[in-house]
# Entry
Amino acid sequence: MVKLRVTTVEEFYELRQCKMSSRAGIRLSQFSRQFARASPFRRAPGRRYQTTDAAPAPAQGTVSRLWNSPVGIKTVHFWAPVMKWALVIAGISDFYRPPEKLSMTQNLALTATGAIWTRWCFIIKPRNILLAAVNFFLGCVGITQVTRILRYQQSVKAGTVAEAVEQDAKDAAQTVKGTTTAVNPEAAAKSAIR
# Structure
């Protein structure tokens, strides 16, 4: 039998852990409870509020606050929304295009992108209000364009129906006119069939 020389408590527990592997689950739960009690992230009881004698944070200027912010100028959380405004401006410029030249699928994609990412901007950390604003306006532009396209498509369908009704009315008027002026009823029936 080999004798091991143990010099520290940690070595003793490591050796004991290797020899007693059947009780590993118990040891792990005991260790985790001890760690949780001694955790530096755990709030001490009775210290729920900040004391009044704490030193106030040093005042920062607007530029330094913007620079050091989690969504500040030196992060992608700032520059991505700035670049995304180009999509909003392009959508607004499409207001001057005729609706028959607009793409329904593209504008539905813009609407969905705006709606989904506006919600997501409030869920992620850090919460990015600038990105939420650009996505909200992107959704508004998409909804406006989709509405224009649908109204145009409805008017085209209504125009063709109105034209068909108008043509039928003219045909009926011609038939009635032909029957009243015709002396021969057989000729009137033949002209009505045409």
